Amino acid sequence: MKEHWYLTELLNMSKLQIIIAPDNRLLKISKPVSEINKKIRVLLDDMLETMYESNGIGLAAPQVGILNRMIVMDCSDKNNKREALKFINPEILEMSQNKSEFEEGCLSLPTQFAKVERPETIFLQYEDETGKKNKKKFSGIEAICLQHEIDHLNGKLFVDHISKLKRNRIIQKLKKYKKQINKT
Ligand code: NI
Fold first, then answer.
1. Helix or strand run (H / E) with residue 168
2. Domain spans of the chain?
3. Which of the following is catalytic: 104, 127, 142, 149?
4. Structural class in CATH, domain 2-183
5. How far apart are CA 150 and CA 58, in angstroms?
6. How far from 2 is each of 10, 11, 13, 14, CA to CA, in Å?
């Protein structure tokens, strides 16, 4: 009996599948989460697990095929304790004039990186997993990551911030990458 329970638990812990670009599902606009319930909380935990297993620092729900406005993030130092953050219905209320450039990657664009310029600081409104509304200022890598993930909720990828030439090069490489993966 206990063995059976253990197996079920294992099955429930299965990792979500990350969608790789180019894929039309990554270009859709996600809908707000209307009710924050158990299902949403389980999903956020599954997203976190998927993100950690893939060594990412952020993941947005549309990347796993769920068109709801949800993000998970952990920008803590790898040697330090985990700091899992969950954001439901995030909305940027203000952003700084100051911008900073950072080399970004994305779990949906594996092995591809490009420098992207974004506002340095943002003031964010969001709901947590209990449904409580929060407002908080973010800067540095967290501000960059949040803007990148909120882009996903709006059907936008980091390559949409760079030149068409660079973007096309990256998309071509990803098409090849997907072909390789499908072969194996
Ligand atoms: Ni991404």
1. helix 164-183
2. 2-183
3. 149
4. alpha beta
5. 10
6. 12, 14, 17, 19
Q: Which residues have a beta carbon within 5 Å of ligand 1, which is an ion?
A: 106
Percent of the chain whose pLDDT exceeds 70: 92
**Which parts of the chain sit beneath pLDDT 50?**
1-3, 5, 8-9, 12
Judge whether 15 and 56 are in contact, CB under 8 Å.
Answer: no
* Cβ-contact 160, 152 below 8 angstroms: no
Distance 111 CA to ligand 1 centre (A): 12
Ligand 1 centroid to Cα of residue 152, in Å, is 7
The tens digit of pLDDT for each residue in 45-83 reads: 999 999 999 999 999 999 999 999 999 999 998 777 889
Q: Is 35 a catalytic residue?
A: no
Q: How far is ligand 1, taken at its centre, from the CA of residue 25, in Å?
A: 13
